Amino acid sequence: MKLLKNYAFLALLLSLVFVACSKDDDNKPSSSSHKVYFKAIASSGSSISVAVWGYDGKATTASSLSGTTWTSPEFEVPAGTIIANAAVSATGVNASSTLKLQVFVDGEMKDEGSSSGEVLSASVSYSF
């Protein structure tokens, strides 16, 4: 049941990110391809459980994860890409537990999202 809640939350979160960004008139497609990956880091004792990542409505899900770190495979987004985004959920051990999610584009960290508490959910996006 808890895993189902995580999936539902991540699906909702990603759909909100895609919808919110699609209404932004300032977004222009990337003029070249880029290498992208995401990295999640949870505090000691926490456990990352689900990750969803992708670009422009194309999403990949990894479930049944464990541990305090997760890194997506590096992937190439083609020219014309508007946004890359990800969401990760984890379970913390107490109210001071933390989760950071970073997006790397062409080897450089561009943005970071974070969460704290016993129920952890972080998201990050990068507009090209």
From TrEMBL:
<keyword id="KW-0732">Signal</keyword>
<feature type="signal peptide">
    <location>
        <begin position="1"/>
        <end position="22"/>
    </location>
</feature>
<protein>
    <recommendedName>
        <fullName>BACON domain-containing protein</fullName>
    </recommendedName>
</protein>
